[in-house]
Amino acid sequence: MKIERPLFKHIRNHSALFSALSDYRIQAMNELGLHGYEFHKTPMFVTDSGARLTIEPERSIVVPSVRVLSNIKSKLVNAIPSLSMVANSEIGYRYPTAALAGLEAPFIKRMRSEYFHRIDEDRSICRPVNLSYGIKSRGKADNRLEYEVWMPDEAPEQSPLPLLIDRYGEDLPDDVRHFVEQPSKVHGWMGVKRAAFEALYHNPSNCGDLVICIAMSVDAYNIGAKPDLSYSPEAESSIALSNAEFEWEIDGYYAPRGWMFDHDTVWEAINHTLEAINGPLEDFYANDIIPSNESKTERILSTIQALGVTQSEIDRLNLQPWEFLLTQSEHRVKAHDPSRKVNLLGRLNRLFYQPEQQLPSLNAIHDLIL
After folding, report:
1. Partners of 95 in the β-ladder
2. pLDDT tens digits, residue range 89-122?
3. pTM for the full model?
4. Given pLDDT bands bounded at 50, 70 and 90, which one contains residue 82?
5. Which CATH architecture has domain 6-368?
6. Which of 18, 289, 294, 344 is the most buried (most CB within 10 A)?
7. Pick from 96, 62, 99: which is nearest to 301 by CA?
């Protein structure tokens, strides 16, 4: 029997999606017998010196394939009595992700988008929309900095700095601001199919009155072997690596109406929740976890580096992410046939849909992880 996932009808409309998701969260709270609670987004983290930092409280594990993560939702609920899934919260995303700075950079710089077929267009063609530009701390440590803005679809080449300043104001750190000012170029690509869903963590002994909202996802991904997604003799493919990842990120919290905000209480509850999810996963997948201290973007960079891609090659190509919106490059030609223009959008499609290494459908991943 086909499982209905009502949020999928809003997959192209973020406003409708997040509004409907909020309704399902409230229903889940009511089913827990928790009434009169209000939702709050993850707050700024305030340091001892008074600096206000935008933090991404998340963790993840990397495994060889999505098949390893079969039934992960039921496994987690059975192992963690304080955890409950938010019914009907399943949604899916196709994320082409470009690394825009190298391994020597002080931060991660990346451009990510969603990937859709146009209405009534050939289903073999997907096009990036909803482009986002992000700066993050390096590695996979707890509580990394994250600064992200949506780029206009009609002008993806514009500088993101004014948008970041508008969103974060004086809370945008100087070192992040200065890093954004540095020129960007595509170093490599990852194609991600993400099956996302939400859960609530209610543990009065450790979190007091707070109910922590957790955004979870199972990602199947391919990493391109070359910055321009061309064929790599070393990889014998245009795809270098295929793995999967389970992520859990704190998306906010519920507190009783009138609850007096306390910074340390919230962050203690957040960090406790992250660890509460981590414990069982290490037991479930002890023999499957691929040890890694790299973020997704860093995995792109280390993968292409291992295949012999040099910084001089990246600099020579000087690829920009918006070039991959085009089926015919304005100035790039095929190495073996200079009379033919390069179809970078087609190469981006192959990162997801190449028959030999095609990523599973979003519904197939959701069916697997029930």
Report:
1. 192
2. 999 999 999 999 999 999 999 999 887 766 666 6
3. 0.94
4. very high
5. Beta Barrel (2.40)
6. 344
7. 99
Predicted local confidence at residue 117, as pLDDT: 67
Confidence of residue 128 (pLDDT cuts 50, 70, 90): confident
At 353, list the tokens: 């849909």
Cα dist. 246→17, 63, 72, 118 in Å?
22, 8, 9, 29
Residues facing 241 on adjacent strands: 223
Beta bridge partners of 254: 39, 211
The model's pLDDT over 221-248, given as tens digits with 9 standing for 90+, comes to 999 999 999 999 999 999 999 999 999 9
Check if the beta carbon of residue 248 is closer than 8 Å to that of residue 325: no
Cα separation, 294 vs 138, in Å, equals 8
Is residue 202 within 8 A of residue 34, CB to CB? The reply is: yes
